[in-house]
Amino acid sequence: MDILNILKEGVAAAVRELYGEEIGSDKITLTTTRKEFEGDYTVVTFAFTRIAKKKPDDIAQEMGEYLVANVEEISAFNVIKGFLNLSISETFWKNFLADIADDETFGRQPANGQKVMVEYCSPNTNKPLHLGHIRNILLGWSMSKIYDALGYEVVKVQIVNDRGIAICKSMLAWQKFGEGETPESTGIKPDHFVGKWYVGFETKFKAEYAAWQLSKAGQELLAEKKNEKQSAEAFWKKYKNTYFNDYSILGNEARDMLLKWEAKDEGVRNLWMMMNSWVYKGFEGTFEALGVSFDKLYYESDTYLLGKDIIEQGEKDGIFFRKEDGSVWIDLEERKLDKKLVLRSDGTSVYMTQDIGTAKMRADDYAPDKVIYVVGNEQEYHFKVLFEILKDLKEPYADGLHHLSYGMVNLPDGKMKSREGTVVDADDLIAEVVKEALAQGLDRGELEELSKEEQTEIATFTGLASLKFFILKVKAEKTMVFDPKESVDMQGQTGPYVQYAYVRIKSVLRKNETAAQANMSDYTGLSAVEKHLVQQVYTYPTILESAAKNYDPAEIAMYCYNLAKSFHKFFYDHSILKAESEAAKAFRLQLSKAVANTLKSGLDMLGIDMPERM
Length: 614
What we know:
It is a single chain. By secondary structure, the protein is of the alpha/beta class. The protein has three domains: 86 residues, Arginyl tRNA synthetase N-terminal domain (Gyrase A, domain 2), CATH 3.30.1360; 294 residues, HUPs (Rossmann fold, 3-Layer(aba) Sandwich); 143 residues, Orthogonal Bundle (Isoleucyl-tRNA Synthetase, Domain 1). The strands form four sheets. It has a five-stranded parallel β-sheet with strand order 7-6-5-11-12, sandwiched between helices. A four-stranded antiparallel β-sheet has the order 1-2-4-3. Strands 8-9-10 form a three-stranded antiparallel β-sheet. α4 packs across α21, α6 crosses α11 and α20 packs across α23. The longest helix has 25 residues. The chain is globular, with a radius of gyration of 30 Å. About 1% of the residues have low confidence.
């Protein structure tokens, strides 16, 4: 039984014995004792004044005396203005430490028979993965690790956006201007190669648009449409999409290619499959570098027509309504979500139609109890509507859906734009943080005696830890700025700082591998730092549960940072191998081992591996 339940049962027994009334645990308020007061946990006694008909201070005093006398885990108490502060005995903490010090699975729970599906990444096949995708991937991977640790069967999926006008832009640009180049012939990573032609299309389109603006037709349009208060530059910026759709030669060719794709034109489909295969090969390299994987891939080219049958049945059931133009809608105004289109007037699908069908397909495939969609916050409205529609359709899985919404990732010098080629590619960013980690390690003189291969291996460990920790320590809903140099700093809230605590512990343990250990139970008089460190380790399972409940890996990241920080303080304040007694040495070695195991497990929840040296 955990200490909180022990305390609550003790308080309930005290109320029963002292005041003759049964109370439930929900009536008992327990908090962690504030740092300025002595104690570990605090009982709020104000709720018992009606039962006891006494002042809070008197209740706290009587209850404290009862608990010390009857609950062996409680060693002392004090009363501060009606608050009962309880101190937990050293024996409890030492027994806990003895039980878990060698348990590398501490915090994990047995299988619970429930299944959770996590959808993340969902890239487009017209460009490589970028920094924004990294945040998405790391959040999704971390949530899958956390739920797995809590005993869920986890299914990791993504839906690949492999069709549409953006994909046709890359295809058309390569077809018109590529002159037969391939990733192999150029030596360019395959997804970067395709992304090059997406940017290339935009470059050619901009040139075409600029020339058209100067043409007679363009100048006549400008004279006709331009508002006197609007500059020519502002008008042309606003008019860009209209030009693409109505006048552009390249735009017309891209749309024609999309129509041919939908008509299953053999030539277009062959080109599409070839270029997509290049991208998939490139994606796999990035996934491997990040250490992530998927159990199932869904493709928009397979799912974009799904949902139409469900919509048609829903219309018959009165869930949807049809307008005079033939389009089908759902009215969610009473839920403050407006009216939403689910089928166009020509009967074609929209994204909402597809997502309804895909949800049904995945439910048929896996029957998950919970589905977590990791998608940027620009899609919050979309998912609110989707979830309400699925509830109206009475889908059995509708109550288990959650949108893990996350904010944009910027760089210190601003935002990124895919079409203009200003995006920081994921591969380039990974290479940069590894390079920065290597440079800082060499500057500190910590890698000089190692081979080049060992230096690279350690720099990769610390570089990826830097990237992952820096991103995951920020609450998902917040917009963030990623600074590669700051991320690899050995001080502060960084992955390497946490890793260094683990490496330091492993170094100490290696030096004591053959030494016989005394009985740590003989060690008494735990210092405040030692006791605090044991207590932090004790809370790890609770942190895992909270992170899952709140869909927030940042809770684990900050827990690991604080645990590492406490260990570093403990390390400076207390000698381990040269402790004042063999019992003290045994206790501190076991404590160090427990901290190392917990840090390793915690960082594993973030997708971060631990090096043996740095």
